């Protein structure tokens, strides 16, 4: 089984753009009509968008963790403006966000391993 990597890569890019809402015409198996510069530019823009989304998600998880720590500390010090309910809700939110981030990481690792084990 001979897999043309350029064709596979172009199909993956097309599916990625379609999933994000940008429609591109289907790319044939032989990369005709696509210059190398256009293919590289579309790859860089979609990967930078994905990188930005991932970075923003991790920043949000970090902010939730820091907010939870601050609320816990304020409650422990006796701040009357922070209730136990607020602390528990913040703790639950940060726990769920961290669990989701770990699951996303695990899926990425699985996908990477699967791709790396594919015969070329």
Topology:
Layout: H1 5-19, H2 36-76, H3 84-116
Organism: Colwellia maritima
Protein name: Flagellar hook-basal body complex protein FliE
Family: Belongs to the FliE family.
Report on the architecture of this protein.
This is Flagellar hook-basal body complex protein FliE. It holds the Pfam family FliE. Belongs to the FliE family. It is found in: Bacterial flagellum basal body. It is elongated and about 65 Å long. The longest helix is centred in the middle third of the chain and has 41 residues, at 36-76. It has a domain at 50-116. Residues 23-41 have low confidence and may be disordered. With 120 residues, it is mainly α. The chain has helices at residues 5-19, 36-76, 84-116. The relative contact order is 0.08.
Q: Strand portion, in percent?
A: under 5%
Percentage of residues in helical conformation: over 70%
Kindly provide the radius of gyration, computed on alpha-carbon positions and rounded to a whole number of angstroms: 22 Å
Major β-sheet, in short? none
What overall geometry do the principal axes of the alpha carbons give?
Answer: elongated
């Amino acid at each position: 089984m001979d897999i043309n990597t350029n064709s596979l890569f172009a199909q993956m890019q097309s599916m990625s753009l379609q999933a994000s809402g940008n429609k591109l015409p289907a790319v044939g198996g032989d990369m005709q009509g696509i210059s190398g510069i256009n293919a590289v530019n579309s790859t860089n823009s979609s990967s930078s968008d994905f990188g930005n989304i991932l970075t923003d998600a991790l920043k949000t998880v970090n902010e939730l963790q820091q907010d939870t720590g601050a609320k816990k500390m304020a409650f422990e010090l006796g701040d009357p403006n922070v209730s136990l309910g607020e602390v528990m809700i913040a703790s639950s939110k940060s726990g769920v966000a961290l669990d989701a981030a770990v699951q996303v990481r695990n899926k990425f690792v699985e996908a990477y391993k699967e791709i790396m084990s594919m015969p070329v």
